[in-house]
Amino acid sequence: MFRGTYTALVTPFRNGEIDEAAFESLIEWQIESGITGVVPVGTTGESPTLDRAEHTRVIELAVRAARGRCKVIGGTGSNSTDEAISLTEDAEKVGADAVLLVAPYYNKPTQEGLFRHYKAIAGRTSLPIILYSVPGRCGIEIGVETAVRLGRECANIVSIKEAGGSVERVNQLRAALPAEFSILSGDDTLTLPYLSVGAEGVISVASNIIPREMVRMVQAFAEGRMAEAREAHGKFYPLFRDLFIEANPIPIKTALSMAGRISGEFRLPLCEMAPANAVKLLATLRNLNLVK
Fold it and tell me: Is 280 a catalytic residue?
């Protein structure tokens, strides 16, 4: 089962290329901070702007940097089933521990189409698969019954990252799925509420810059230290909020740049933050003593 705190890693760029040194340094910091695992080339990793070779290279770099000290979950989703299969096979070849598969976006398949999509991928890999439902980006959600059906018919589909913004949906998933099928929050602001109704962890954007603090919040909840978990949530809620004042990963890459960890470079169509939003984000980071 997947439980704990996983970081949806940014992909640092420098002069238009992947900044491998900065990426490996970021992973080392994550591991030192006690993170359960890292997720390269998800949405936060700007996967839509990476070519096929770069996509696999980033996963390979993460595996090499982790050296077995934390889990590496490669983002291999696509709106093309054949491409998702190919990316998943590549991730397995370079040593990923599992894969995260976002729901197909733009083409809006039916629930039957979703089921067939995931079943086809599951049949081509031995890796554990984490489903990823994020209707705000994909235009569809992975239905509760579809998740149940996939878990029942595909032994290696074992978890779901839920980013639909609804505690009620997590209630429904937890009631319908077997106990061994884990639910992970895909929304930092809702991690604590999701944990309270049965989620087991988070795939976090914020943990790019506060890895130790996110680990502690999730551990505090798991160990029954509810007041400590609530205190952490309240303290970092302004950061959770401001990391989405523009489309992810613009704010988190900007925050990491402000902290001196990466260059803050993007690939079009993403670009730098609007000045007013950058000022707001910097103030939040300073209030939390995350930058000078």
Answer: no
Catalytic residue among 118, 161, 194, 253: 161
The predicted model gives 239-263 an average pLDDT of 97
Which of 132, 194, 253, 292 is flagged as catalytic?
132
Residue 258 lies in a domain: no
Q: Is residue 88 part of a domain?
A: yes
List Cα–Cα distances, 83 to 127, 144, 237, 292, in angstroms. Answer: 16, 25, 37, 43
- Give dist(CA 52, CA 134) in Å, integer: 23
> What is the total count of domains within the chain?
1
Which pLDDT score, from 0 to 100, does residue 65 have? 97
Instruction: State the residue range of the domain holding 73.
Output: 4-226
What gap in Å lies between CA 113 and CA 8, rounded to an integer? 27
194 is catalytic: no
pLDDT exceeds cutoff 90 at 1:
no
For residue 250, being part of any structural domain is answered with: no
